[in-house]
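dude i think i finally got it to work??
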Amino acid sequence: MKRHLKLFVKGFLNSLTKNHRSDTGDAQALDIYSDEAFANLLEEWGNGTVWDEIQIFLGNRQGRVLDLACGTGRTHDFLKENPTLDYYGCDISPMLIEKAVERGIDAKRLCVGDATKLNYTDNQFNYLFSIGSLEHFTLPGILATLRECKRVCCGLGFHQIPVSRSGFDEGWVTPHQSYWLNSERWWRRHFSQVYGDKVWTVGSKWGAETMRGVWFITANEKFFATTRK
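look at this
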C-alpha cells in the first residue's frame, strides 16, 4: 500500500513539474543504438515476458510480419519455428541490423530505415509488431509511425509499450534513453487518432518500478473485410 501511494504521489508531482521540456518531446536520442552494451541488453530483457506474449499473438499466424524496430532480431528466435510466418525486420541502427544478419536472418528481409517513412509498399504485411519502441519517439514521430504502420499492414498490429504505474502523464523523461512515461489513456488517445475505435489493450507481464507493460492491438479495416468473407 505504501509503495502504491509513493508511486501515486511521485507520478502526480512529475505530472505537475513536467519532466519533458515540450508537449511533443525533444529529439529522439539515437546514440544508444550504436552502443554494444545496449545491444547485449536487447538479447535478454524480454525473457519470460514479452517474448512469450508475442508467441501467443503470432504463434499460429500465416503471412508476412514486420518486426518494427527489430534491434538484433532476437524476437525472430521465438517465431522462426512457425513455417507459415514470413519474418521481416527494420531498424534505424545499422549496427543492430548487422547483428540481426549475424543471427542468421536473411539480409534481404532486413533493412535500415526510419519508422516514420517506411520503405515498404501499401498492405505489404499481414501483421506488424513493435516491442518497447514507440515510447522513445517524439509525438510527431509516434503519429507518423502509426500512420505508416496502418499503410503497410492490412491486418493486425501489436505494440508493447510501458505506461506509468501512477496513472498520470509524467511526460518526456531523459535519463540515459529518452522516453514518454505516460498513462494508458494518453497512449490510447494517440492510437485512436490513426485507428479510430480499432484499438484494444492487453496487459503485459513485463514491468518495472514506475512502469507496467501494455500491448496496444490495432486492426486495419481491411482485416475485418478479409476475415468476414
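DSSP finds seven helices and nine strands in the chain.
im so relieved honestly
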